[in-house]
Amino acid sequence: MEALIKLAEKIENKELRKKVIDYINDKKLKNPHFEKYKREDLKKAGSYFSVGSSSLGPVERDVVHHTTVLTHMVIQVAKIMEAGYGIKLDMDSLIAASICHDIMKAAEYNRDENGELEPTGISLDHTVLGTAELYARGFPEEVIHIVASHAGEAGTTPPRSFEAVIFHELDSLASIVEYYAIAYSKFNEKIKEMIEKQSEKLGE
What we know:
By secondary structure, this protein is mainly alpha-helical. The chain is built from eight helices and four strands. It has one domain: Hypothetical protein af1432.
């Protein structure tokens, strides 16, 4: 969580910076109908995800780690795009949206007593819920649009600004790399365990 707050401090607009930090720290959902759902502590927040038709199956994502890596990517790529194509990007909105885009995954999954992720049963996915929360908290339209459209053209709200397009593409790229890095690591661990067990049997 401290990593997200440190990134939020890069937002130049004081009002927007405060909104983002409040959103990070405030676990309460604005709509009273959703108060029954507990928002997991962001330090423990995770979710299951997969990429395309991979046969490796779903893996567990660390929400804060994904968000931190992605936000650093967004900042660097935005600077390159501005320099390379002579466009002016709304860096504050990009940073704010990047930090906020997956926070509501903490309301989709909670940790049980064993530390395992379990669905809360909430009827809205993190994108819809996050969009609603940002609207209720008075975030600027551009930030809300970037978050609402981060699923890309296949989503209910397609990206319609340079900032939204850049964010969607980088989120997709980060997710693909993250997925295979985690999946192959787990796969190699399983192979190692199988070899160790087989070695133990042969040694008996």
